[in-house]
Amino acid sequence: EPYEALETPWGSHPMTDPLLSSNSFRVIHDGAGFSRSEKVKFLSECTVSMKNLRVCWEGKLKGNNCGECEKCVRTRLNFVIAGSPNPECFDTPLTKKHFKPIKLRTNPARTEWNLIRTDIKRTGNGIEWLPEVEKVIKKKPKQKLRSRIFIKNLFKRLFKITKSHS
Questions:
Q1: Among 40-49, 50-59, 113-122, 138-147, where is mean pLDDT lowest?
Q2: Distances from the Cα of 109 to the Cαs of 5, 33, 70, 102, 103, in angstroms?
Q3: How confident is the model over 92-103, as pLDDT tens digits?
Q4: Residue 32 · residue 2 · CB < 8 Å
Q5: Is this prediction's pTM over 0.85?
Q6: Is the dihedral angle over the CA atoms 90, 92, 96, 99 positive or is it negative?
């Protein structure tokens, strides 16, 4: 994440990454001075990077980007903002159908989509995707089943306690 949009807690953070260092191995958090779209712009200038970039872990073929998961669609938007709308690391062009199944399950993902919206408005690149981006951001995340069951059981226990004390 860029400095202006750091998420805490998160797996990688400029304050905590150096704590992973030892006397023989130094960990440096690098790149937070740039947004994801700025980093993608840098990568888009390298043909080898454009062919071989892998961001996806959800697709069936683990060596390729599925092009459809949340992270793939988000990365594709970063490329659009960077002025490279159809990078070689994705097999097909971005279409409206890619946005419909997207659900933002984490705060960092929501932050990234908000940064994409800001970058689209700032640069004008990808303005045709702005309505789709807005729809994704406005979708409310579904409450996890486990949370609903916990709350339901909590209410049952509270009701029993209240009822037995009446």
A1: 138-147
A2: 11, 18, 8, 11, 9
A3: 999 999 999 999
A4: yes
A5: no
A6: negative
